[in-house]
Amino acid sequence: MVSTQSVGVESGLKYLSESQDALQSRSPNQELLPLTASVKSRDRLEIGGCEVTALVEQFGSPLYILDEETLRAACTQYRDAFKRYYPGSSQVLYASKAWSCLAVCAIAASEGLGIDVVSAGEIHTALQAGVNPDKIYFHGNNKSPEEIQLAVESGCAIVADNWLDLETLAELGKLDVSSKTGGPIRVMVRFTPGIECHTHDYIKTGQIDSKFGFDPNSLDEVFKFISQQPSLFCVGVHAHIGSQIFELQPHDDLADIIIQALTKALSYDLPATEINIGGGLGIRYTEADDPPSIEDWARTICTAVVAACERQQLPLPKLLCEPGRSLVGTACVTAYTVGSKKVIPEIRTYLAVDGGMSDNPRPITYQSVYRVLAASKMSAALTETVTVAGKHCESGDILIKDAKLPNCESGDVLVVPATGAYNYSMASNYNRVPRPAAVLVKNGEVNTIIERETYQDLLRFDRLPVGLRVQK
Ligand code: LLP
Q1: 373 and 437 assigned to the same domain
Q2: Among 275, 302, 323, residue at a domain's last position
Q3: How many angstroms separate the CA atoms of 326 and 251, rounded?
Q4: I need a labelling partner for 211 at 20 to 30 A (CA). Which of 65, 119, 292, 380 fits?
Q5: Per-residue pLDDT tens over the stretch 136-151
Q6: Domains of the chain: total
Q7: 46-89, pLDDT tens digit by residue?
Q8: Structural domain that includes position 417
Q9: Partners of residue 415 on adjacent β-strands
Q10: SS3 of residue 252 by DSSP
């Protein structure tokens, strides 16, 4: 792998990892590019042993390129760290909202992870991917009765977020709906832990003023209600503080709060033996981002939970967590092809690509900052400062402001790293742009995991009203 460059000349090579550690021991969330990223011949970026430009030639552009090794490394690091640092039993769930599709769910499950789902669509995806329903946990602040019924009938656990969830579950319990699976209805109680953390306002969830979870002051009432429902089996409590978090302290603080909630559940004689501390570990989108490693995150949580249990003199509960971004985020890059170039002398150069806010809505939604590389000019000096614009009819559709790139022209392939989480899952068809394909790469082999949408797909649900004639 080429990982050095001439002194004083910056090139795209600077984005490759400088770590000499073995691939599997690097924490993916601390890297900018997938673990297998390299530049071997012809100055071209390779992911999973495949040249990005060759993938674009074969599968079209834009293209999500998912590196299997990076995804698996993140799964095993989470799983193994919880085994190493937690003396009780543990279960890592993949928060599939980050990227819900058959392949990602199946890979996570094959590494022993369960799945966190938030809609009937995500439940179907996880089930179709072959995930054991015992390991599927159904979240959501406004689950429909049909969604709850599907989850219960399939044997998933329900994370009760509010009174409506509990009332619906109690009704289903009376109807003996759970009999299809034979087991009782497993319920976790989600509450807001009252912890603030430093992240974008839209992705904070732990503060008291949040739409998610029970107010902690109502927990007595909640546990009492559940204890009066013979069909509901309260397996534990859940809290999640937010997303893209770089601090460890809020997670440390959470341990005592969640163990106190568990103690309260036990005081109502509920069979509560699980706690779920949510997800939230941040990833590196730019060199300025410095998240803790998966191992440090897990160690902090495990140590804090063990200490909190000692203080409360409680046997260790089963410890669950549900990361999304830090499992899949770094594993994927998006490749685009450059189209038009607009030079406004002394003001700005816009380089437009063939995707944008429809395949990556994060910059326009959260002002997220990304890096960009020229896939076939990896060692060329970064001489230009350009703004990479999307193709959508919206001035705010800018993917990267003031990006440093070598000189790029129409036809060049650009790569935006760290697009595995909340990109495909939040993609849209704005301007009737078909969603891109996604390929999985490993050791030079490539498989399509999501087909590119066609124009026919875009019209699939359109109907012309009867009798409407279009004058030609
Ligand atoms: N558990 C719960 C209850 C959650 O609400 C979330 C994320 C997670 C787990 C996973 O969090 P993670 O490990 O991925 O940080 N669309 C936003 C992120 C929204 C996060 C929603 N909840 C973004 O693109 O930044």
Answers
A1: yes
A2: 323
A3: 15
A4: 292
A5: 999 999 999 999 999 9
A6: 2
A7: 999 999 999 999 999 999 999 999 999 999 999 999 999 999 99
A8: 4-67+331-453
A9: 335, 373
A10: helix
